[in-house]
Amino acid sequence: MGHVATSIDGMELVYERPRTLTDTPMHYCPGCGHGVVHRLLMEVVQEMGIQEKTVGVAPVGCSVFAYNYMDIDMQEAAHGRASAVATGIKRILPDRFVFSYQGDGDLAAIGTAETIHTVNRGENILVVFINNAIYGMTGGQMAPTTLLGMVTSTTPLGRDAAVMGFPLKMTELVAQLPGAYYVTRQSVHTATAVRKLKKAIRNSLEYQKRNKGTCFIEVVSNCPSGWKMTPKESNDWLEKNMFPLYPPGDLKVPRD
Amino acid sequence: MIVEGAVQAGCKFFAGYPITPATGIFKGMVDMLPGRGGLALSAPDEISAIAYAIGASLRGLKAMTATSGPGWALMTESVQFALMTETPLVIALVQRLGPSTGGATQGAQGDVLLAEYCTSGGYTIPVLCPATAMECYSLAILAFTWAEVYRTPVVLLTDKEIAMTSERIDDHALCPMTAQDRPTAKAGSAAYAFEFPQEIPGFRPVGGYEKVTVTGSAHDKQGRLQKNSPETVQVLRHLEEKIRWREQDFSVVESDLQAGAETLVVSYGVTSRAALQAVVRARAEGTAVSFLAIKSLFPVPKKAIVKALAGIRTVIVPEENLTGLYRSVLSSLFHGADVRGVNKVGSMITPGEILEAVKEVQ
Ligand SMILES: Cc1ncc(C[n+]2csc(CCOP(=O)(O)OP(=O)(O)O)c2C)c(N)n1
Questions:
Q1: Terminus of chain B with fewer CB atoms < 10 Å: N or C?
Q2: Rounded distance, CA A82 to CA A101, Å?
């Protein structure tokens, strides 16, 4: 962190809230991944010294209140349209760092076409995709990303591929597109994972200076309330059940 | 109760996308339909949801979807397609507060005109508006009957307060009727055969014995795309005429008229419950006042309204929106009377507020 570390009661302060994050208690459920990702984004923004030059778009979904926490220009967008609104902003302000921050409902259900076209145009923005395999905000219904057999409020007997199709792997899909510059899948369920995600965010925002195409980060995340688990259970469940289908790692890295 | 009514009506297909305060209907359908030989599908958005339902209806199934304002906005292209192709369809529209994303957990009566006037040309889409859990049930059944018999999209307009409130009901009082079915086409007849514009053409399912083509473009009686041939214009007129001609059949109101009253309170939906309370209290205080609760917002039940207006000098229309949406529709019927609104957004109108308006007149 760029500024002076002080001490508290004789102990050295080694970690603190970045100044780019407001001092507002978050509304997220205990253990939810959203808060950690917010923090990482803002840590990177602070470390790069780009607070005044960063614009975010967070549409409806649990993170609709992101503007309360991220101390940068934050816009909401209609459901599914985050990357489209981000496109408009980036085209007019090409020197800004622009990102969209979307849930799997927003990005992989109602906004699927928007996502594919944004990446296909190679829009020079960062897309942060929080995949918790569920529509969190509306109370835990099946999303396109929901795992087979997973029980949600609209799949009371578990998701059946014969009726509801297969989990949609958006990240694999967009990695195929020529407009994608950097595509990676990360998570926030362990300290190591958090550090790796932070690196991915840093890379993406650095790449944005090169103007070479879309950076896309999927964050495999949890939803303790929607999954009806404790935070710890949800993190264990995530590793055991989400990772086989959504394995962490880079899908596309810049060649130049 | 909308779900109970729809299932009782014989609904066999539902497609939805979650949105507060309509998600309960989606969830209820997922829980109930499969066990009754039906199918409830999750769509990736509202545009798909309504299109799935149209597809199922084109095959002849009673079909439904449910949403709130933001989703309705996305559905309107397909609502017009259903109207143009005379495809029976019920859409439950559960209103929430405000434009755009609005307030998901706040009720409102702000989509009245958005629901009715969503077609280019302003075609009449029947809109039913229940005020109680029991009416959610009975009007859901009626919505299916209208959709089927008149081959039209029908909107079942509620709001967060009606759709998400738990109410005690007497289930013995639930009428065990089912909805009527759509008329079937005679073998060899044109896709949209009618002699008189008000006639309802017989329906022919896709995948049946006879070839079927359907187009949302302006078309002739055969269902073939045409520019503006006289027959195509006839079909466009027929789409409105089939509703207008039998306007009376669509009238559902509850009127409680008091002899000698010079004030009439007209209301609908959840607000009509507060209005009824206000009327009861006004009468207890010795004020004569008539009351009309409208359940079929469109086509406007003109006769019932004109009847209620006899001897009336002042009409009060309470509704939970800023500008008096339904009042603006009715005002031409109220000529001569002093028309006043009781309008509010953000919370329900109370009986006291309506009572105050009634008393102000005296
Ligand atoms: C057009 C429209 N349809 C539906 C909704 C209701 N809605 C709000 S958020 C949401 C899904 C949120 O899920 P996701 O994007 O996965 O984010 P999460 O809440 O899980 O973080 C839905 C369906 C809406 N606001 N607008």
A1: C
A2: 8
Mutate which of A63, A106, A221 to test ligand 1's pocket (most atoms within 8 Å of Cβ)? A106
Contact B30 A154 (CB under 8 A): yes
Say what the pLDDT of residue A195 is. Answer: 97
- Looking at the domain assignment, is residue A122 inside a domain? yes
Pairwise CB contact (< 8 Å): A154 & B101: no
Type of residue found at B323: T
Please give the average per-residue pLDDT across A61-66, as a whole number: 94
Residue with the smallest CA separation from ligand 1 atom 20 is A136
Range of the domain at B129: 2-173
Q: Which structural domain, as residue segments, surrounds residue A141?
A: 6-252
pLDDT (tens digit per residue) in B103-121: 989 999 999 999 999 999 9
Task: Say how far apart CA B246 and CA B243 lie, in whole Å.
Answer: 6
Distance CA B53, CA B9 (A): 16
Task: Provide mean pLDDT across the span B165-182.
Answer: 89
Closest CA to B151 of B123, B121, B131, B177: B123
- Closest C-alpha to B318, from B264, B256, B282: B264
Q: What is the pLDDT at residue A2? A: 44
pLDDT in tens, A41-62: 999 999 999 999 999 999 999 9
Q: Are B275 and B293 in contact (CB under 8 A)?
A: yes
Residue B306 maps to a domain: yes
**A56: CATH:** 3.40.50.970
| Domain-embedded: residue B311 | yes
Domain-ending residue, one of B117, B139, B173: B173
Task: Name the domain count of chain B.
Answer: 2
Q: Is residue B30 part of a domain?
A: yes
